[in-house]
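haha ok so turns out i had the wrong file open the whole time. this is the CORRECT one, sorry everyone. sequence first:
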Amino acid sequence: MIASPSVRLAQQIAVAIPALLLGGAYISEYGFGLYPCEMCWWQRWPHFAAVALGLLSYAISPKKLWIALAALAIFASGFIGGFHAGVEYGWWEGITGCATTAGSDGGNALDAILNAPMVRCDQAPWSLLGVSLAGWNFLISCGSALAIFGLLARSGKTGEA
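then structure:
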């Protein structure tokens, strides 16, 4: 069965938005040295799930179920981003300590830990128009999830597949 234009657009958004946000996060990290804190990582995991769920919608029926699950994952990342932004702006306390970028590159693990930069969860390393990366994730992810749900609802009301 051929999917309606609304379902196809929802499907494309469900894959493209989390993939682009993850791509931006990795470009920020490896291209500009904006290493993620622990809460930044929490925002990435639902996007990984959303990409996988969105891709499943191309292969396994029912498409709308997989797309809706991807939208829920995108919304979850946005919710975490909103919480993280609130911590960065000092609106409330965070629930985690800070993370580091320490990793094992084949050298001494203790040296890697001791020489790794500390990444604070309560300080935004970068912002655009006064909105941190976590804040942008909140806005883009929640807006995208709502758009996906709206497109799926529209396809259901018009009887589209």
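The helical segments are 5-32, 38-59, 63-88, 109-115, 133-157.
again sry for the mixup
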